[in-house]
Amino acid sequence: MSETAAPSLRELQVAREIAHAFLTATRPTDVYRLALEQVVPLVGAAFACVFLRDPGDDLMRVVAAHNWPAEHASFLGSMRVRVGLGPTGRAVADNEVVEVHDVFADPAAEDWREPAEELGFASSVSLPLCFRREPAGALTFYFRDPGELCEADRSLLRLVADQLAAAAEKAHLIEDLQKANQRLRTQNVELEARYRQAEEARRLKNEFLANVSHELRTPLTAILGFAYLLREGIPGELGGEQAAAVEKIEAAGATLMGLINDLLDLTHLRLGRTTVELEECDAVALAHAALSSLNPPTTEIDVRCETPDEPVPALTDPVIAVRILQNLLSNAFKFTAEGSVTLRLNTLPAPPPSLSEHALGIDGGVVLWEVEDTGIGIDESDFEIIFDEFRQVDGSATRRYGGTGMGLALSLGLARRLGGDIAVRSAPGKGSTFTLILPTRGPAARTAPIEIRAG
Ligand code: ADP
C-alpha cells in the first residue's frame, strides 16, 4: 500500500471533482464507475470493486469494477460475496472499514490466499456503503503489495465511500423514480386505451339498445292495434271471456310499450339525441294533463290538485314536462296505499338555494310542480340511488310494486335536458315529495349528451 503523507492539493482537487460528479450523475453505475476511476490511481490500488447486496438477500454481487484483471473478467458477473464472510462481507456485516495488511501473513485471511494469488493482490481495504444508515454494500480496493494505509489515505477513502454512498443513494432514488414514472406512463397509456374501448362499447351498447327498442316498437304497435280492433268488435263481436282476454293483451302490451319507450328515451338521452321543442305553455294545464292521464290505483287515495286559478306561463317542452309529471305521479300512486297524493304548483322568482347546482344554474324565475304523497317514504341515505338507472330502494320491491327503476333516472335526465332539476324530500313511513323545477324562460342552449347516472 502507498505510504503517502498528507493529501496534496491535487488529491483534494480530485476529491472535490468526484464529489461534484457524484452529485450530477443520475445512474448509479455512472457514480460507481466514476468513483473507481478517480480513486484507484489516487490511492495506488491495483483494482477495486463496488459490491451491492441483493434486496432481501445476504449475498452481494459486483456492480462496478475498475482495472479488474482481464483474464478473470468472466468470473466477475457470477461472483457473489456473502455478508459477514471475508473482508468485504465483514465490512458490511459490522458496518466498519476492514483492512487486510497482508493476505499471505494474516491467519484470518487464509481462505483468500488462492484468489489473491490468482488476481495478484496482497492487501485490501473494504469500506461499507450505507444507504439510509443501513450498510447496503461495500467498496473494496486491492493493492499489489502488502502494507498499511497512511491516515491521510484512510480518511480520503472514508470520505470517498461516504460521498459514493450518498450520491449512489440519490442516483438509486432517481432511478426508482424514473422507473415508477415509466410504469405510470405505461399504465396511463393502457388506461387511456381501455377508457376509449369502454367508451366505444358504451356507445355501441346504446346504439344497440336504441335500435332494438325501436324495432320492438313496430310489432308491438301492430299487436296493440289489432287488440284495439278486436276490443271494438270491428272484425266481429267478441264473447265476454274473449273480450276480457283481449283487454289483458292490451294492458300487458301497453305496459311493455311503456317500458320500451322508457328504454328508448333513456338511450336517446345518453346519446344526446333527445330533441326539445320549446313552447309558451301554461304550467297549470300541464299539471292537469298529467293528472288526468293517470288512474289512481285505489279509491283509498285522495287525489288533490292545488294549482292557481289563473294560467302560469312557462317556456318549456310540454310533452317532456307532462311525461316527467306522469312518472312522479305514477310513483306516488304506486307507493301510497292510503292517504293522499297532492299535485301542487308554485312559482319563485329564482331557484331555491336548497336545490342542487343544476337548478342553481337557472338565471330567472322557476315553476315548481310538487308531487306529495303519504306513502311508504324513502330513507335519506337512498336519495342518491333512486335516481340511478335500474336502481330501486329495495330490489325485491319490483315484485311487490312492479317497475324497472328507469322512471326517476329518465325523469331527472329529461328535467336537466329542459334546464331544470328534480328534488326529493322524504322519510320512511312519512311519505315523499318529489319536486320538478323548470325555468320559466326555457333552458340555456344545450347540445351535450345528458349524463345518466348508472346504477
Ligand atoms: P320504479 O318505480 O320503476 O322502480 P323509479 O326510477 O321510478 O323506478 O323509482 C326508483 C325507486 O325509487 C323505486 O323503486 C322506489 O324504491 C323509490 N321511489 C320512487 N318514488 C317513490 C315514492 N313516491 N315513494 C316511495 N319510494 C319511491
Q: Roughly how many Å apart are the termini?
A: 78 Å
Residue windows where pLDDT falls under 50 for at least 5 positions: none
The CATH topology of the largest domain comes to: Beta-Lactamase
Helix content range: 40-55%
Profile the largest sheet: 6 strands, antiparallel
Q: How many beta strands in the DSSP annotation?
A: 13
Overall tally of structural domains: 3
Produce a short descriptive summary.
By secondary structure, the protein is α+β, with helices and mostly antiparallel strands. Helices cover 46% and strands 19% of the residues. It is rod-shaped.
Q: What do these coordinates show?
A:
The chain has 455 residues and is of the alpha+beta class. It folds into 3 domains: 7-181, GAF domain (Beta-Lactamase, 2-Layer Sandwich), CATH 3.30.450; 200-270, Helix Hairpins, CATH 1.10.287; 279-439, Histidine kinase-like ATPase, C-terminal domain (Heat Shock Protein 90), CATH 3.30.565. It is built from 12 helices and 13 strands. The protein has helices at 9-24, 28-42, 73-76, 86-93, 113-119, 151-231, 240-270, 283-292, 318-334, 357-360, 397-401, 407-417; strands spanning 47-53, 59-66, 80-82, 98-100, 123-131, 134-143, 279-282, 301-306, 313-316, 339-348, 366-373, 421-426, 432-439. It has a 6-stranded antiparallel beta sheet with strand order 3-2-1-6-5-4, sandwiched between helices. Strand 5 and strand 6 (134-143) form a beta hairpin. The longest helix has 81 residues, at 151-231. The radius of gyration is 42 Å and the shape is rod-shaped. It starts with 8 loop residues before the first helix and ends in a 16-residue tail after the last strand.
